[in-house]
């Protein structure tokens, strides 16, 4: 794996050049499923250029999985999905739309079913959600719609509903995560390098719940051109003792702060340049 970007960043930090810039790239218009778009790499490069930005060598291009899914045709209308008998039975048992359960089953083995509806009966949890809401009445309505959540382990993380998501899509549509996010990231990275001559890295992100805490964060589900880990186990600390650690998940750290800059509502900035 080409880890050029990570090595460059680490060298700069050690040399005292520790400034990092995070630049979200706003699209001219939103993406919609079913429409024709250029290849993912070409689309991302055009979007960056349209926003008046440029890609430099050693940049990290962070991209949400949602736009990769749209560009790769991984979106479906639930009304067009024919659920299997198993999907219909599970849907009836757990109060979930059978067509959605069918897509979840196609994505992988169900590891667990989380009883969201029961958990959200806790007054403390409901109060906490209300406190962070921009519209408590809408929050209450949203909370009331929660039932049970199917958990799938994929890409090294536990994904709610296998990562299937209806946000930022027309009504009735859902997106599935890219089939192989690392392969998608590699293709995007190679295309950008071919078109620009710049050696940048690519990270594809998804949003997951933070276990044991209120809230969520973006993590990496695919990457290319960057070593995902810092490899400094047993490096000495301030007192010369070898430190247990030094295996930070760099790609997740980058995904988290890039996700904060990009936003997940109507910002329409699903691409971020980290330099």
List the helices and strands and how they pair.
Layout: H1 4-14, E1 22-25, H2 40-50, E2 60-64, H3 65-71, E3 75-77, H4 85-94, H5 98-107, E4 110-114, H6 116-119, H7 123-131, H8 136-145, E5 149-154, E6 157-160, E7 173-175, H9 181-196, E8 201-209, E9 216-224, H10 250-262, E10 271-274
Parallel strand pairs: 2-8
Antiparallel strand pairs: 1-10, 2-10, 3-7, 4-5, 5-6, 8-9
Structural class of the secondary elements?
alpha+beta
Q: Can you tell me the residue ranges where pLDDT is under 50 for at least 5 consecutive residues? A: 6-11
Order of helices and strands: HEHEHEHHEHHHEEEHEEHE
User: Based on DSSP secondary structure assignment, what is the total number of beta strands?
Assistant: 10
How many H/I helical runs? Answer: 10
Helix content: 25-40%
Provide the residue-averaged pLDDT: 90
Largest sheet: 5 strands, mixed
**Shape type:** globular
Separation, N- and C-terminal Cα atoms: 20 Å
Provide the gyration radius in Å: 20 Å
Strand residue content: 15-25%
Widest sheet: strand ordering: 1-10-2-8-9
């Amino acid at each position: 794996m080409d880890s050029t970007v990570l090595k460059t960043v680490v060298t700069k930090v050690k040399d005292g050049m520790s400034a990092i810039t995070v630049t979200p790239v706003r699209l001219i218009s939103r993406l919609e499923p079913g429409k024709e778009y250029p290849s993912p790499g070409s689309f991302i490069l055009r979007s960056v250029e349209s926003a008046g930005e440029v890609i430099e060598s050693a940049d990290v291009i962070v991209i949400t999985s949602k736009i990769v899914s749209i560009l790769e045709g991984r979106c479906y209308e639930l009304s067009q999905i024919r659920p299997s008998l198993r999907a219909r039975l599970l849907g009836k048992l757990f109060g979930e739309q059978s067509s959605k359960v069918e897509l979840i089953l196609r994505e992988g083995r169900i590891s667990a079913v989380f009883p969201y509806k029961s958990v959200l009966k806790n007054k403390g949890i409901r109060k906490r959600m209300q406190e962070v809401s921009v519209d408590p009445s809408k929050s209450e309505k949203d909370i009331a719609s929660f039932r049970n959540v199917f958990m799938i382990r994929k890409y090294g993380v536990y994904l709610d509903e296998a990562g299937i998501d209806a946000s930022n899509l027309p009504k009735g549509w859902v997106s599935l995560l890219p089939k192989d996010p690392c392969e998608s990231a590699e293709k995007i990275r190679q295309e950008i390098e071919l078109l620009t001559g710049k050696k940048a890295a690519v990270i594809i992100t998804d949003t997951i719940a933070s276990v044991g805490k209120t809230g969520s964060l973006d993590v990496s589900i695919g990457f290319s051109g960057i070593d995902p880990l810092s490899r400094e186990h047993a490096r000495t600390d301030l007192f010369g003792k070898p430190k247990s650690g030094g295996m930070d998940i760099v790609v997740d750290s980058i995904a988290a702060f890039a996700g904060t800059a990009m936003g997940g509502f109507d910002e329409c900035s699903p691409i971020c340049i980290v330099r």
